[in-house]
């Protein structure tokens, strides 16, 4: 196969490839962030690039002719996932196609807890061996520990060197009653754990001091699995195609955790070898992919997981760069796609103990909805997030530098906006789209069916009609940034799923929106959501603002609490067992409620 030379601009990144490789594949090998919300299927049109020689690439595909204009094709604009390279080439990646560092919520509410972690350390001072004393090194340690202790092979391997290097003073590290590692000298002051939230879009880690319960550092990255699709169904489909694909997705999840951990460790004087346990919260699909479990039976009715209860595996087997003897605990899943992250949400908010009726909505690519009153808990999940992450929106993008994040529309229909970083706008992130739809409803620009009804210089007629948010002279792309009726329809679909899930749970408990005493809005996207605008479009119940609490990343906070408390870990198992679950895809009420939920207006 002929070898070709390509250059990615504006990075100046040079690469040798084999003829026939796609531009998207080459970009991934060059570690260049290139948007690909559909996972390279030619559906989203986000991976636009500009080639300097149209003769050095394959002819435009049907997907490219559908998603690109003739003028764009004439200028050398192509879709990276569809275009194969047949000659030396310079490829320019425009700003709107680049993956920048995303704003990620790493914090949540803090709940006090009595410290009782599974990991504990004990310093031991042992006698030196003498002639006639037939005890081995391990027997000396077990006698000092008082018996009843199981031993990991890794700990036994480390023992001879640790004993002699520490002049027969060592620190035993135990997970419960299992010796998992030993260290020379007295290292009891250095004892850390890792709380992890692996979301569909993002990975967040918190480095936790197990002796105090405090978070000493945080790190966050985008989930590297996204190269194989923005949504969990695309990834599960990819995983089911071959064992190698499943292994790749498992490796990518571990690499994401390691990268986030590397960021956290860069800010503090802590060695990764001093991290002895990780608690990893994620939805059921990501849970399976992170553990390398076949998701094929989870992907189809009756959505059976490989394992439902809390599960532990060795960190080294999963590829996590922490202590070799460390364990990884994944909280129990509930059912369907309501996973350990939802259980972590409950533990973090204390929803299972609340006496008042409380609703929790963890907004993300996959949204969990949980309703409880201290006596019973109901849960469901819905696929809502791609639109909130900017996917399927014409000028949508993730919450990165240059994204419009806040929008106001005046009575004269003039638009004010704020961008992340205060720079010229590149596009709209999810919070801005919610703002825009709500403001357009208030100003009469939009009717409850999602149709533009006003006239004016910001209205571009057509199929679909568009509302101009930012004029071309204001933007970084040199093009108008608009919101189309098709974009609004995507938001209707997403918000209707959340509305319907919430409504069905309320019907199961026989309550109304007005009965809700506390509404928790959780998740990375939820942290930047304007609750009043979410109420305006009918995405969340229309409850008084003083009852709404934006709580941030409760999944990672729940993971932290389970890292620190055996009791809360046991509670998590009980919560998952007792929580009642509604599978929306099989629920007869869903077909009745969902069409009505598409209506834009307050949810009362």
At the fourth CATH level, what is the homologous superfamily of the largest domain?
Answer: Domain of unknown function (DUF4445)
- Tally of individual domains: 4
According to CATH, what is the topology of the largest domain? Nucleotidyltransferase, domain 5
**Class by SSE composition:** alpha/beta
Broad shape: globular
Helical stretch count? 17
Low-confidence stretches: none
- The strand line-up of the biggest sheet is 12-11-10-13-15-14
- The CATH class label of the largest domain is Alpha Beta
| Approximate strand percentage | 15-25%
Number of strands: 27
Overall pLDDT, averaged?
88
Instruction: Tell me the CATH architecture of the largest domain.
Output: 2-Layer Sandwich
Provide the gyration radius in Å. Answer: 26 Å
Indicate the percent of residues in helices.
25-40%
Give the N-terminus to C-terminus distance in angstroms.
64 Å
Instruction: Tell me about the largest β-sheet.
Output: 6 strands, mixed
Describe what is shown at a glance.
The protein is built from 17 helices and 27 strands. It is α/β, with parallel strands linked by helices and 604 residues long.
Describe the structure.
The protein is α/β, with parallel strands linked by helices and 604 residues long. The chain has four domains: 3-97, Roll (Ubiquitin-like (UB roll)); 100-330, Nucleotidyltransferase, domain 5 (2-Layer Sandwich); 340-386 and 491-597, Nucleotidyltransferase, domain 5 (2-Layer Sandwich); 388-486, no CATH class. Helix content is 29%, strand content 24%. The protein has a six-stranded mixed β-sheet. The model has no long low-confidence stretch (mean pLDDT 88).
